[in-house]
Design goal:
Blueprint: E1 2-8, E2 25-26, E3 29-30, H1 31-39, E4 45-50, H2 55-62, E5 68-72, H3 77-85, E6 92-97, H4 105-118, E7 120-126, E8 133-135, E9 138-141, E10 149-158, H5 159-171, H6 180-187, E11 193-195, E12 214-223, H7 227-231, E13 241-244, E14 247-250, H8 263-275, H9 281-284, H10 297-310, E15 313-323, H11 333-343, E16 349-354, H12 360-363, E17 367-378
Parallel strand pairs: 1-4, 1-6, 4-5, 7-11, 15-16
Antiparallel strand pairs: 2-3, 6-10, 7-10, 8-9, 12-17, 13-14, 15-17
Helix pairs in contact: 5-6, 8-10
Length: 379
């Protein structure tokens, strides 16, 4: 039987959170739920060691996991693990920080296999940075990096061995251990390590809880006007230019549009709006609203960028692809790129322009289509 102890009696102080970080939602679920889901396929028993005042919020999160229950933890990690060890019944116990919610299945399986073979299994990663012993702000010595590892959780042991180690530590009045491998090493022997995972990070600081990057995609098409459409008032009379990315480009025909017809900016605005989970530009700037008759699309883009910033995001980069048989866009690409980059707060912008090899409405010169993709990060 395999038991799991999830240490969850911490707080969100270093992360700047007003509550225990196990309740913070990531990808739509609380951190604790992610941790429970990771171990549920492997454990017949999961004991969550949490603060007494958090029990009322923890218990409902355990409902989907029939093998899980909660115990009141202590003021330190060692005390919390000791409390949970008194409750577990499995021959093997894995101790894991609930604040490491994205532990891969491979790491869990390797820890279990190592305990069965060696009596212990501690997830660890080789150090990638040079590490030094420091005192009074000065380096004393630099140990060989090849022998240094960063320890993670889970840390697995034979239950009775770990229970004995914790009991002896209590007898000695030891409370200076920062993880279970240290207690085990002091009283039982050298723990065996298994390869951890860089994604198995401990959520500690505000940036660890930042929303993930958002991707948005937009597309827009405008047709070129015919003389009869101009005569009927469907198209405007400016027959000698079009607007793309805020740049005026000479053209022998205008584009049919309620606004200025900047098809590239329209695609970009839809990409931005969908990335933040918003409605499209037709919702925000309706074609039947006289206020947007002949509107400057770059000014509309400013409005959309305010929505992006209000959502807590900034643009990391944007990519625009324009399909147009005419006019020739190559001489204007750099000016278009610079205009969009400035509008997006200096974010890198790539613009590609091409024809459609004489195929379809683009190839026949009847319209222009633009595609846009954006990557958003947090402010």
């Amino acid at each position: 039987m395999i038991s799991v102890i999830l240490t969850a009696a911490g707080s969100g102080t270093r992360a700047g959170l007003p509550e225990n970080k196990i309740f913070c939602e990531l990808h739509g679920l609380p951190v604790l739920t992610h941790a429970l889901s990771a171990f549920a396929p492997y454990a017949e028993e999961i004991v969550v060691a949490c603060k007494t005042e958090d029990l009322g919020r923890v218990l409902p999160l355990l409902a989907p996991f029939p093998q899980a229950r909660a115990v009141a933890g202590g003021a330190t990690r060692m005390e919390s693990v000791r409390c949970a060890l008194a409750e577990v019944k499995g021959e093997i116990v894995l101790v894991h920080d609930a604040a490491r919610p994205f532990v891969p299945a491979r790491v869990i399986e390797d820890c279990i296999a190592s305990v069965k073979q060696h009596g212990s299994g501690v997830a660890a990663l080789p150090a990638t940075d040079t590490t030094a012993f420091v005192s009074e702000g000065k380096i004393d010595s630099i140990p060989p990096r090849t022998s240094l590892f960063s320890l993670q959780t889970p840390q697995g042991f034979l239950t009775e061995a770990l229970r004995t180690a914790y009991a002896r530590a209590a007898q000695d009045g030891r409370c200076d251990f920062t993880d279970d491998s240290g207690v085990y090493a002091a009283y039982c022997g050298q723990p065996h390590i298994v390869l951890g995972d860089r994604g198995n990070r401990k959520l500690t600081y505000p940036e660890d809880f930042a929303p993930p990057a958002r991707v948005g995609f937009g597309v827009d098409t405008h047709a070129f006007a015919h003389q009869e459409e101009i005569d009927r008032g469907i198209a405007r009379l400016n027959l000698n230019y079009i607007r793309l990315c805020g740049v005026t480009i000479p053209s022998d025909r205008a584009l049919i549009a309620h606004s200025d017809g900047d098809v590239a900016v329209h695609a970009l605005m839809d990409a931005l709006l969908t990335a933040i989970g918003g409605r499209d530009i037709g919702y925000h700037f309706p074609e039947d609203d006289p206020a947007y008759r002949g509107a400057d699309s770059m000014q509309l883009l400013e409005t959309v960028m305010k929505m992006v910033h209000e959502g807590g995001f900034s643009v990391q980069n944007a990519s625009i692809s324009i399909l147009a048989e005419r006019p020739r866009l190559a001489p204007y690409i750099e000016k278009m790129r610079a205009a969009l980059s400035a509008a997006l707060g200096g974010a890198p912008v790539g613009i590609a322009a091409g024809t459609n090899e004489k195929l379809g409405y683009v190839g026949e010169g009847r319209g222009i289509t633009a595609y846009a993709a954006v990557l958003l990060g947090t402010l």
